From TrEMBL:
InterPro entries: Anthracycline_SecMetBiosynth, Glyas_Bleomycin-R_OHBP_Dase, Glyas_Fos-R_dOase_dom, VOC_core. Gene3D superfamilies: 2,3-Dihydroxybiphenyl 1,2-Dioxygenase, domain 1 (3.10.180.10). It comes from the Bacteria. It comes from Streptomyces galilaeus. This is VOC family protein. Pfam families: Glyoxalase. PROSITE patterns: VOC. Residues 13-123 form the VOC domain.
């Protein structure tokens, strides 16, 4: 079922995802074919992906070939400067300092103590997802960590109410890297998009030039397959 966004997502809730790609037009063809997304120009060289008119993601062009081709999840914060201070206190690092984005909001990029990269978003005119928890939209973010206790301590300090509070409905899990990937894989977040039929979606990924990395396998939150797009960005398909 579709879930409409609130005016602003609560602190610590995944509120946006974006992909940094070598070729945005190729990304539009891939994700438009896979999820039925439409696209419109956003800030800078980025485009917003829309599903039935609602914003669900952004695709941006990599400005440095040394940067990874990745999907990044951003967590909502009402005060990005305060969150950045807590990240440093808890043993994380800030990669990109809080930066205003054309009135849409303020973005920052950080890494946790094990090196997993994530974003922060303080909403302005753009609160985040217009729809989630449905096929073709964001469904889950899984952190694959070396030490899940370290991850729980760090993110519990950072986003306690969203993860462990009485009203918590997490969209964010933690698991050991070795559960799915080779042990040499660095800790990282894996963005999941909802699908109605995982096997059918895997066929579409292959037809569109992507490939299957792992699965399908059964997780506590559904049937999951890890794939890459036609430019090497990893993400997951989630059938509830």
């Amino acid at each position: 079922m579709a879930e409409n966004r609130a005016s602003v997502y609560a602190e610590g809730v995944p509120c946006w995802v974006d992909a940094q790609l070598p070729d945005v037009d190729a990304g539009k063809r891939f994700y438009g074919g896979l999820f039925g997304w439409d696209f419109e120009a956003a800030y800078g060289s980025s485009v917003w992906a829309r599903l039935d008119g609602a914003p669900v993601a952004a695709l941006g062009r990599k400005t440095d070939g040394r940067m990874p081709t990745v999907w990044t999840v951003s967590f909502a914060t009402p005060d990005v400067e305060a969150t950045v201070r807590r990240i440093r206190t808890a043993g994380g690092q800030v990669v990109t300092a809080p930066t205003p984005v054309d009135g849409a909001g303020v973005a920052a990029l950080a890494v946790d103590p094990e090196g997993a990269v994530f974003g922060l978003w303080q909403a302005g005119d753009h609160p985040g997802f217009g729809v989630r928890h449905r096929p073709g939209a964001f469904a889950w973010a899984q952190l694959y960590a070396r030490d899940t206790e370290t991850a729980n301590t760090f993110y519990g300090h950072l986003f306690h109410e969203a993860l462990f509070g009485p009203d918590a409905v997490p969209d964010f899990g933690r698991a050991p890297v070795s559960d799915v990937f080779p042990e040499v894989m660095p800790p990282h977040f894996l963005v999941h998009f909802g699908v109605e039929d995982c096997e059918a979606a895997l066929g579409a990924v292959s037809r569109l030039g992507g490939r299957v990395q792992a699965g399908p396998f059964t997780a506590s939150y559904g049937t999951v397959a890890v794939v890459t797009d036609n430019q090497g960005a990893s993400f997951a398909l989630l059938q509830r």
